[in-house]
From TrEMBL:
This is PE domain-containing protein. Residues 264-284, 361-380 have a biased composition (Low complexity). It holds the Pfam family PE. Residues 4-94 form the PE domain. Gene3D superfamilies: HP0062-like domain (1.10.287.850). Residues 301-320, 338-360, 381-403, 472-484, 492-513 have a biased composition (Gly residues). Residues 285-294 have a biased composition (Polar residues). It comes from the Bacteria.
């Protein structure tokens, strides 16, 4: 009896190839039909005409044969497709009972052990199906452990199932956010490697690799989860340790550590709306007499109060007003000096500098209408200077306005009125420093090699440190105070503006994670594992932009000069690079092996770039 072996897939492929050949032949016959069936005679003589007719007759015969061949080709193609379909149907019909029989036999074999021990005798363990569920154990005789399921938020990944006598342990499931990865399952009692540990959830450690029990390699440790804000304090997860080998085999490699969190950008807190108390105003003085010398002096205002955290400094006290009036009809010396405005109070952290107090007004008047010997002078007080903005981006305080000066307007009097100058605006405060980048997670340690033979596992690499945050913008410079008015030609000058604050310094980069140590080699023969490389240091953050300069104050009028606007602040310095992670140590070797080499030191990070300068006021 002869046997025929047919592969349905091969028949289907052959049918496709035959169809392509038929298409190519038909295309060639069609292209040749016109040129060969309409041959022109080379000349008008009888011989040439007969030769052309002979070629046309042969071409027509070829076209007839080609049509018959195309019909046969189509029939052959249909038969080939039908044969392939028949074989495929027969194969499916024959396979179904065999598959059913296989499952039936396995169910019968596994029924006693499932009833007694909850695991099959032959077959793989089931994978975990619900969040965090462990994988099922493999068959007692032959079978791999099932894989653990991933955990939900805050739930550890499921552990991998262990193998029986022969088989590989299942892999651990990935941990949910903030939870560790599942441990890998152990390999078979006789032969089989341990399963790989699951990846750690956000900010959590990776799972430990499964152990090999007699012959086989330890499973690799899971990778640590990367850091994230508000999860496990923003820390990166460490890599899981590699599993140990049993009697003969290599230890598993440690998992890599997670990457550190980027530092938060510096944010200027701003003022909370509160302000310290205003400085006490200077006492005013009014003098009116008939003496030959009449003088009045306003007292200076006091500095504004110091603000607490987030508070603006208090406004400086206003200078006292001075009013001197002489009633002597013959002649007199009359003088009035307004008090100086108090300086703005010191700002708290993040608060605006206090506004300078206004200068006191000065008024000098004489009742003399007959003599030209009067000397009448009114000098108004200058505005107080605005205070500098608090650190962390506080804006500078506005300079106080200069006081107004007024004297008698009688044409023969020697009158001079000096308007007060505006106070200088306070400089903006330095911007907030960017946050420091988070440290990378440590790499897992390599697993121990077999007790007799086997190399130790390599240590896992440390995670990269996070980048430092950007520095915040510097505070805006305060505007200069306006100059005071005068009824003569000596109005007060406007105050100069405050300079913009320096941008905040960029944050320092995070420290790289330490590399894991290599595992020890077998006692008799085995090399120690190589230590893991340290994680690279995080880059420093970019410095903040300098604050905008303030605007100069307006002059009080004729004779006064407007204050100068100020430059923007300097850009903040870039943050320093973090520290590179330390390298892992190599594992010890066996009697016939050598110790493992240490890992490489982590790479150096880069310093952050300087921020741009602020705009001119």
């Amino acid at each position: 009896m002869s046997y025929l072996v047919a592969v349905p897939e091969a028949l289907a492929s052959a049918a496709g190839t035959v169809a392509e050949i038929g298409s190519a032949v038909r295309a060639a016959s069609t292209a040749a039909a016109h040129p060969t069936t309409t041959v022109l005679a080379a000349a008008a003589d009888e011989v040439s005409t007969q030769i052309a007719a002979l070629f046309e007759q042969h071409a027509q015969s070829y076209q007839a044969i080609s049509a018959q061949a195309a019909t046969f080709h189509e029939q052959f193609l249909q038969a080939l497709n039908a044969a392939g379909s028949s074989y495929a149907s027969a194969e499916a019909a024959n396979a179904a009972p065999l598959q059913t029989a296989e499952h039936t036999v396995l169910d019968v074999i596994n029924a006693p052990t499932r009833a007694l021990l909850g695991r099959p005798l032959v077959g793989n363990g089931t994978d975990g199906s619900s969040p965090g569920q462990a994988g099922g154990a493999g068959g007692l005789l032959i079978g791999n452990g099932g894989n653990g399921a991933a955990g939900a938020t805050g739930q550890a990944g499921g552990a991998g199932g262990s193998a029986g006598l022969l088989g590989r342990g299942g892999n651990g499931g990935t941990g949910g956010a903030g939870a560790v990865g599942g441990n890998g399952g152990n390999g078979g009692l006789l032969f089989g490697s341990g399963g790989t540990g699951g990846t750690g959830g956000t900010g959590a450690a990776g799972g430990i690799g499964g152990n090999a029990l007699l012959f086989g390699n330890g499973g690799a440790g899971g990778v640590g989860g990367n850091a994230a804000a508000a999860v496990n304090g923003g820390h990166a997860g460490a890599g899981g340790d590699g599993g140990a080998a049993g009697l003969w085999g290599n230890g598993g490699s440690g998992g890599a550590g997670g990457h550190g969190l980027a530092g938060a950008d510096g944010v200027n807190p701003g003022s909370n709306g509160a302000s310290a108390g205003a400085g006490t105003a200077g006492a005013s003085q009014t003098v009116s007499d008939g003496q030959s010398d009449t003088r009045a002096f306003g007292a200076d205002g006091q500095r504004g109060g110091t603000g607490g955290t987030g508070w603006a400094g208090g406004t400086g006290g206003q200078g006292g007003n001075a009013s001197a009036t002489n009633t002597d009809p013959v002649g007199a010396y009359v003088r009035a000096d307004g008090g100086q405005g108090g300086a703005g109070g010191t700002a708290g952290t993040g608060g605006a500098g206090g506004t300078g107090g206004a200068g006191g007004n000065a008024t000098a008047v004489s009742s003399n209408t007959t003599s030209h010997s009067n000397s009448i002078t009114a000098t108004a007080g200058n505005g107080g200077n605005g205070a500098a903005g608090g650190s962390d981006g506080g804006s500078g305080g506005t300079g106080g306005a200069g006081g107004n000066a007024t004297t008698s307007t009688w044409q023969y009097d020697n009158n001079t009125a000096y308007g007060g100058n505006g106070g200088k605006g306070g400089d903006g405060g330095i911007g907030t420093t960017g946050g420091t980048g988070g440290s990378g997670g440590a790499g897992g340690n390599g697993g121990r090699g077999g007790l007799l033979f086997g190399d130790g596992g390599n240590g896992g690499a440390g995670g990269t440190g996070g980048t430092g945050g950007h520095g915040a913008i510097g505070g805006t410079g305060g505007n200069g105070g306006n100059g005071g008015t005068s009824n003569s030609v000596d109005a007060g000058d406007g105050g100069d503006a405050g300079r913009g604050g320096t941008g905040g310094t960029g944050g320092t980069g995070g420290t790289g994670g330490a590399g894991g140590n290599g595992g020890a080699g077998g006692l008799l023969s085995g090399h120690g594992g190589t230590g893991g490389a340290g994680g690279s240091a995080g880059d420093g953050g970019t410095g903040g932009i300098g604050g905008t300069g303030g605007h100069g104050g307006n002059s009080g009028g004729t004779g006064g000069v407007a204050g100068a606007s100020a430059d923007g602040g300097d850009g903040g310095d870039g943050g320093a690079a973090g520290t590179a992670g330390s390298a892992g140590s190599g594992g010890t070797g066996g009697v016939l092996g050598s110790a493992g080499s240490g890992g490489a030191l982590g790479g150096a990070g880069s310093s952050g770039s300087q921020g741009g300068n602020g705009a001119h006021g």
